[in-house]
Amino acid sequence: MKTLLCAFLICSFSTAFAQSDNIEIEINNQVWLPFIKTYSSMDAIGFMNLHSRDLLRVPVDSKKIYNYEEYSLNNQQSNEYNFRHKRRQAIEFSFEERVHNETSAFEVGYYKVTTTDANGKTGTFYGKFTVVLRKFDDRWKIVLDSDTSKKITESMFLSGKKL
Q: DSSP label at 150?
């Protein structure tokens, strides 16, 4: 009887981990990989399509809260500035915590942004993010996006699980 119970528990845990992995893969494919692509190509429309219309964007360092429209406008203006000044940008992610079920997710991690100016000079900075995602009609969307760059280091970024 103990053997049967152990086998049942092992199968249950294996199934739960497999479902968890599938959800992470789905989130990666629907949110994080397109996020990287649209951020790097400065595609403001594609980037905002990854976010829910009831988004809350909280850049903690500036002590502000933006809604979808405000965040969208900020992204468009930032991208226009970068295009005018021939600046490029790239982003990478590593994860500290990923908790989810079939319709909701809470993820905490680090990002690394690399910028390149018109002269080829690069700069790198790091931040820590907290994101809440929801699944709407089989699509994952960001509903809360918060971040800070205070005291975030490369070693912290490297400590997370890279995407």
A: T
Backbone angles phi, psi at 51, to 5 degrees: -110, 150
Q: What is the pLDDT of residue 108?
A: 98
Q: Are 127 and 40 contacting, i.e. CB atoms less than 8 angstroms apart?
A: no
**Domain, as residue range, for 23:** 2-162
Total tally of structural domains belonging to the chain: 1
Q: What's the CA gap between 119 and 55, in Å, rounded?
A: 36
**120 vs 86: CA distance, rounded Å:** 10
CA gap 163, 12 in Å, rounded: 27
pLDDT at 17 over 80: no
Reported as a single tens digit per residue, the pLDDT across 109-126 is 999 999 999 999 999 999
DSSP E strands, the chain: 51-59, 88-100, 104-116, 122-136, 139-148, 161-162
Compute φ and ψ for 154, nearest 5 degrees: -60, -40
* CATH code for position 42: 3.10.450.50
